[in-house]
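Data deposition worksheet. Section B asks for the primary sequence of the deposited chain exactly as it was used as input, without tags or linkers unless they were present during the calculation. Section C holds the resulting structure in token form. Section D is free text for depositor observations; keep each observation to a single sentence. Incomplete worksheets are returned to the depositor.
Section A, Depositor: J.P.
Section B:
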Amino acid sequence: MKPQLFKISILTLLSIIITSCGGKEKKSTSGSEEAEIATAVLAIEKPQLTFGFIKLTDMAPLAIAKEKGFFEEEGLFVSVEAQSNWKNILDRVIDGQLDGSHMLAGQPIAAGAGFGRQAELVTPFSMDLNGNGITVSNDVWSKMKPNVPKDADGKTIHPIKADALKPVITEYKNNGNAFKMGMVFPVSTHNYEIRYWLAAAGIHPGMYTADNVQGQIDAEVLLSVTPPPQMPATLEAGTIYGYCVGEPWNQQAVFKGIGVPVTTNYDIWKNNPEKVFVMTKKFVEENPNTAIAVTKALIRAGKWLDEPGNRPEAVKILSMPQYVGADEVVLANSMTGTFEFEKGDKRSMPDFNVFYKYNATYPFYSDGVWFLTQMRRWGQIPEAKTADWYDTTIKDIYRPDIWKKAADLLVSEGHIPATDIPATDGYKPVTADFIDGNTYDAKDPIGYINSFSIGNKD
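Section C:
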């Protein structure tokens, strides 16, 4: 198939970006005194694409890019297909059955770091910030609640730390019951977040070894994998007593009256990175303009999602069966600036789902390094690594250079302001915005790993 030529208007200053990516340009002039505009023709190497996703609200940029025509405006004709689980998504992207996918941030990182199936995967786009919660069964909550501080009006004070869960775990253990919780995948944000939350209260979530790939060595809480849409049913069946998952599956527990969300990942790590969009390195090298065009459409979708007034429409789109397929009222509980904890305890959380602001779409190296430190902390990376290894490894996977080319074009076209492009070396400033107040400096990964009382030391 010949590359499809897709016309876009850009400033002459940026026309070199298109030319360097395989495009052609021709100059045009006008009689106005405005800056000269060049009309460029971008060669789309592969216009017909198939992308995957899991039924979670944070797949929203894919749905919006398709439904609002952003993909089509870039000369892309995209099919967006729901997948059964995260392993299936990983395998299908690696095997070339999917051109790209909504993916757990830890998946491309683990594939490059040597944990699980190995492959050369890249991400030019971060899909969102925050968006997860930890939910426990009604029985567990009834035992936790007396341990949770309350304000003068008798309302529980958030964030709720796992300290309130610790005596409940002890009670279950004394009654001969292992305390079991679910997370969605061994390298998921959810696994690392629930581990962080537990360990911050002195509760050991278990270690991974070559002989124990379940990560349950020395565990006081047994964590196991459950696909996100199956979380509420698994909780209701009593197979697990709690879980960490993305929306709408925490709010679904409230809606069904089977569980209570006790904390969100916004409280565990403020404005933490969540999902990413992933393609193979081979795909990006063979289709560089297509990769830029995809990234452009997704950035526009993220911006649309965070514009005031668009969330109700986004909820309607996501409720469609080909996307998340959940009830609008369940989706709206978290997508429209609120989050319901105990039934009737709906609180304002305007940043529970962030798709664009705070540079949410930019693939920061420091975000990726955090996942690498947690893989090492819990034994998924079995041997100590140098600080340089963390930097080099993440720079092979996170590709802000592709993001920057896409964003520069969007600026020239008037879709985003130039101020939305961060001036950065890819590393965010040092932060202590964690539930335990610990300080994270991505340029000192060894010091960070060694700062924890539970986990590996290097």
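Section D:
Residues 4-130+274-363+397-420 form a domain with the D-Maltodextrin-Binding Protein; domain 2 fold (CATH 3.40.190.10).
The CA atoms of residues 208 and 379 lie 5 Å apart.
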